[in-house]
């Protein structure tokens, strides 16, 4: 249990930066939807461009985050040497990417159908190059068990980005009207979407200064043998990482191309992307768990077989994923105000998107069988299959059913690869997961969710009270069955 307590502690700290940070970051969604009307498709442009940068980020990191953890924890390897070689490789790849993109900026902008805004593309090229390089110092902080610094940098970046967005999108327009001379030398009212990218670029540059201590104090020497081994290990992770991010972003990348009217596609994409953000709690929990779980698993693997612990971690992840799902859906009457009213038509996808996030988290938990056995090619196979399912369903159904089809396509894609990973994993690296216990939690959550939707209460306040009671039933079952109060630190002081 000491291992699980350590995992829980790190997850809580990483979760603080992830949950608080993402919550603060998603406060930008009301801002964006308020200043960018749904009918303009401007938020669709933002979502489309960020979808491409998410894909490129995976290319440039090359799976080296996981590779670093694997080799830094490998017997006989010097962690600082592994870290230095990882920095050199990812940094070099990022630099080459920036040079090539700047040389061919206008053709790339035209290919992405932003011929009038190569500046958007240039800014995001720089952002994604900086972010990919910074992923390695972030991984080093996780390896060194320094979640406080990790969380602090993340939060600083997010708060700074929010302040810059408020400056460009709210303060500058106000000053442009009431004190034009103060901002006329740099501010252009029509450049609204562009200032979102400007804010991101500024903070990515500033963030580099925080990593100065992590970038010195060791020798930058290329170990060709080690680097070759790391590339060989990481390449399959790159493949399923690329396909994995395509699973998350392919709909946003191709969406405008699935309509005869590209503008209509951007409008729908903006609505879909904005309302999907309401499902942020699930994504935040999954990310926080991942940050803590990856170094935890590789570290524990050196100590011997810990399959019972992996089984318990899966169970608790599943339980709290369902709790997050119910919390979001029960309080939708409040959370819908995260987006402007003209985006509310897309709120029907929130439950579906959260279902996809649950499958994604389960798949991540299952994925360690092929990482620990060094059979990472399986991750590539699964990711390709999932991507094919998502892509095919989007192309087939989106022109008819719109963004609801995109949401269900994600559920189908992640559901298929979760099932495949479980079946094959049980043959390659069997882990006895508590499926019966998990099924009981799933049934209970489903019953409570159906009750919340089928019991019609017109008064919003009473409806929230009723749904809160339903949520408390689920929490009470968790406390009775798997998390007695006397086992919870601090709380156990008051429980005999």
Automatic annotation (TrEMBL):
<feature type="transmembrane region" description="Helical">
    <location>
        <begin position="120"/>
        <end position="141"/>
    </location>
</feature>
<feature type="transmembrane region" description="Helical">
    <location>
        <begin position="462"/>
        <end position="479"/>
    </location>
</feature>
<dbReference type="InterPro" id="IPR050833">
    <property type="entry name" value="Poly_Biosynth_Transport"/>
</dbReference>
<feature type="transmembrane region" description="Helical">
    <location>
        <begin position="12"/>
        <end position="29"/>
    </location>
</feature>
<dbReference type="InterPro" id="IPR002797">
    <property type="entry name" value="Polysacc_synth"/>
</dbReference>
<feature type="transmembrane region" description="Helical">
    <location>
        <begin position="233"/>
        <end position="250"/>
    </location>
</feature>
<feature type="transmembrane region" description="Helical">
    <location>
        <begin position="314"/>
        <end position="334"/>
    </location>
</feature>
<keyword id="KW-0812">Transmembrane</keyword>
<feature type="transmembrane region" description="Helical">
    <location>
        <begin position="437"/>
        <end position="456"/>
    </location>
</feature>
<feature type="transmembrane region" description="Helical">
    <location>
        <begin position="403"/>
        <end position="425"/>
    </location>
</feature>
<keyword id="KW-1003">Cell membrane</keyword>
<feature type="transmembrane region" description="Helical">
    <location>
        <begin position="346"/>
        <end position="366"/>
    </location>
</feature>
<keyword id="KW-0472">Membrane</keyword>
<feature type="transmembrane region" description="Helical">
    <location>
        <begin position="270"/>
        <end position="293"/>
    </location>
</feature>
<feature type="transmembrane region" description="Helical">
    <location>
        <begin position="378"/>
        <end position="397"/>
    </location>
</feature>
<protein>
    <submittedName>
        <fullName>Lipopolysaccharide biosynthesis protein</fullName>
    </submittedName>
</protein>
<feature type="transmembrane region" description="Helical">
    <location>
        <begin position="191"/>
        <end position="212"/>
    </location>
</feature>
<feature type="transmembrane region" description="Helical">
    <location>
        <begin position="49"/>
        <end position="71"/>
    </location>
</feature>
<feature type="transmembrane region" description="Helical">
    <location>
        <begin position="83"/>
        <end position="108"/>
    </location>
</feature>
<keyword id="KW-1133">Transmembrane helix</keyword>
<dbReference type="GO" id="GO:0005886">
    <property type="term" value="C:plasma membrane"/>
</dbReference>
<dbReference type="Pfam" id="PF01943">
    <property type="entry name" value="Polysacc_synt"/>
</dbReference>
<feature type="transmembrane region" description="Helical">
    <location>
        <begin position="153"/>
        <end position="171"/>
    </location>
</feature>
């Amino acid at each position: 249990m000491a291992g699980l307590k350590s995992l829980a502690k790190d997850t809580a700290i990483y979760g603080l930066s992830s949950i608080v940070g993402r919550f603060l970051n998603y406060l930008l969604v009301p801002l964006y939807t308020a200043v960018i009307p749904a009918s303009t498709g401007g938020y669709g442009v933002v979502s489309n461009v960020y979808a491409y940068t998410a894909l490129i980020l995976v290319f440039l990191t090359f799976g080296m985050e996981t590779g670093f953890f694997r080799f830094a924890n490998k017997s006989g390897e010097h962690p600082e040497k592994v870290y230095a070689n990882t920095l050199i490789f990812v940094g070099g790849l990022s630099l080459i990417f920036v040079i090539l993109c700047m040389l061919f900026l206008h053709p790339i902008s035209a290919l992405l159908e932003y011929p009038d805004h190569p500046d958007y593309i240039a800014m995001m090229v720089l952002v994604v190059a900086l972010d990919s390089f910074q992923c390695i110092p972030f991984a080093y902080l996780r390896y060194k068990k320094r979640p406080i610094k990790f969380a602090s940098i993340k939060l600083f970046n997010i708060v700074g980005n929010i302040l810059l967005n408020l400056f460009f999108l709210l303060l500058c327009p106000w000053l442009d009207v009431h004190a034009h001379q103060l901002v006329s030398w740099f501010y252009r009212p029509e450049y609204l979407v562009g200032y979102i990218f400007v804010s991101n670029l500024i903070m990515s540059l500033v963030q580099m200064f925080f990593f100065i201590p992590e970038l010195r104090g060791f020798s930058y020497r290329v170990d060709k043998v080690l680097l070759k081994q790391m590339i060989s290990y990481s390449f399959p992770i790159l493949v399923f990482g690329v396909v994995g991010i395509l699973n998350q972003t392919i709909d946003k990348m191709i969406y405008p191309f699935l309509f005869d009217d590209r503008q209509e596609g951007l409008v729908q994409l903006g609505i879909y992307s904005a309302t999907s953000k309401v499902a942020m709690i699930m994504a935040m929990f999954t990310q926080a768990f991942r940050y803590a779980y990856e170094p935890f698993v590789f570290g524990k693997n050196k100590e011997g077989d810990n399959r019972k612990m992996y089984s318990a971690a899966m169970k608790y992840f599943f339980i709290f994923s369902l709790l997050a799902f119910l919390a979001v859906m029960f309080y939708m009457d409040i959370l819908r105000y995260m987006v402007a009213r003209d985006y509310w038509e897309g709120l029907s996808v929130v439950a579906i998107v959260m279902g996809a996030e649950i499958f994604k988290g389960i798949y991540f938990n299952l994925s360690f069988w092929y990482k620990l056995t060094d059979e990472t090619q399986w991750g590539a196979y699964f990711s390709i299959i999932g991507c094919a399912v998502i892509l095919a369903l989007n192309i087939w159904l989106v022109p008819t059913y719109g963004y609801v089809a995109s949401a269900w396509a994600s559920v189908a894609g992640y559901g298929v690869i979760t099932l495949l990973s479980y079946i094959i994993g049980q043959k390659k690296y069997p882990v006895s997961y508590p499926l019966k216990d998990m099924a009981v939690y799933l049934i209970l959550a489903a019953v409570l969710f159906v009750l919340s939707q089928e019991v019609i209460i017109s008064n919003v306040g009473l409806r929230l009270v009723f749904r809160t009671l339903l949520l408390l039933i689920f929490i009470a079952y968790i406390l009775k069955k798997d998390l007695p109060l006397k086992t919870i630190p601090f709380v156990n002081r008051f429980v005999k």
